[in-house]
Amino acid sequence: MNKVPIPTFTSSSSIMISKLLTLLLGILTVSTISLAQQKTSPTISSRIEKYIADVEKAGFAGTVLVELNGKKVLSKGCGYRNVELSKKNTPHTIFDIGSLTKQFTASAILKLEMQGKLTTSDTITSYFQNVPADKSTITIHDLLRHQSGLQSNVGDDYEPIQTQAFIDTVMKSPLLFKIGTEFSYSNIGYSLLALIIEKVTGQPYEQYLYENLWKPSKMEETGYSRPRFDTSQIAVGYGKNNTIWGKPTDKQWNGRAPYLHLLGNGGILSTTEDMFIWHKVLMSDRILSKAAKEKLYHPAVRLTEQQDAIYAYGWDVSKTKRNTYRVWHNGTNNIFYADFMRFIDEKTTVILMANKFFRGVDQMTSEIAKIIFEKNYEPTIPKPDNVTNQKFSQEIIDDILKSGLGEATQKYRNRPSNTDILEYFFNRSGYEYLSQLKYDLAIDIFSMNCLAYPTSYNAFDSLAEAYMSKGDKPLAIKNYRRSLELDPTNRNAEDMIKKLEQ
Description:
globular, 16 helices, disordered N terminus, Beta-lactamase, seven-stranded antiparallel sheet
């Protein structure tokens, strides 16, 4: 299950191919699209607007763009890109898009294949010298699909490292499994792809992407250093309790781009508007041919895989209950967050970027998608992740440990107004005790979470896992079923029910 945000661009995070504001408030920018001009359902649009407004009240800061039936119906900013200067987020605020970078790397590789300069079946021995025997059969295809066996990272995002030192470190690192047999998210695999692009073209990674992907697409707000961004438009990143993290461009870079711990796998800057342009380009054959796009979304799979849900080339691709495909990726360093969810068969897209640490932001595109596709769906609004709620959450956990679930439940029900427990806080604590094999404590903590969040599929999924770990099959099945009722797309619950019933 996705207990925390998934694909990522930092060494502190990894993908778990998991689970993903107000027109009336003065702090919002005016939507660039008039709802009166829409031909799509105003009911869906207004429900999305209300949800976004409610989430902004809870602390969301960023931008959101929504396409329905091929028409852009919403594009707006929420909160501030610079709190200290009272600068608001707008549809043209520039964010670090994290692992959305990987789709550009994958597209560049396929563009080079279209140009006859490489093939995805090439082994890395064609591009790097002194490749050790255990890695000599890794192909470009393996790197693109995270099935090379390479670990995720060999250093921190902004840690300085020279090219040969990076290559040497990667080549000396142990493989996690036999090449091509399993999946393990590898940022360094995509950094190797960036180096292959540079070796084949004789150009810097960013320059090739600009000339072959972004310039032909008329994307003028995307790159590392190109274009020369108006630095006032780059969002300041804010951490927990609004601590200032700063701008990506203020970090230590290798000249005009990040070092190889980040190059090619993350860190590109962009806007929701530019990423929507990219989406539209991918819906045409302007940059990638029809055959290349088929390979982008549906590459060759491993023997043990099914095409219904795979990590393809820089995209997570899964089949929906409507027998359509969701093409998705996200990225985070737990400061910036970017999410790009496309239902290409249904001409529906949700793009979100954020510049503030905010628990629940990783679920926002999924919630918006449910508003769109599930009639009368009531989205979950995260509780404000403030000091008061953090402190109260810890008090309730302490009461569970000291006095039991009953007394803690009574204290929760008699809580002061504007005070609540935080779902992520309890989920994290429950897993800490589960990892220590303290099953009953984990169950009590997860049970409290379910009491506080009765519509959260993730809360019930976690409780089911705790019961399963304890060996209580009936209660595990019961709670997995409840999780699946709350979210019919929860494949983990579906799979676990089948296994437990067997």
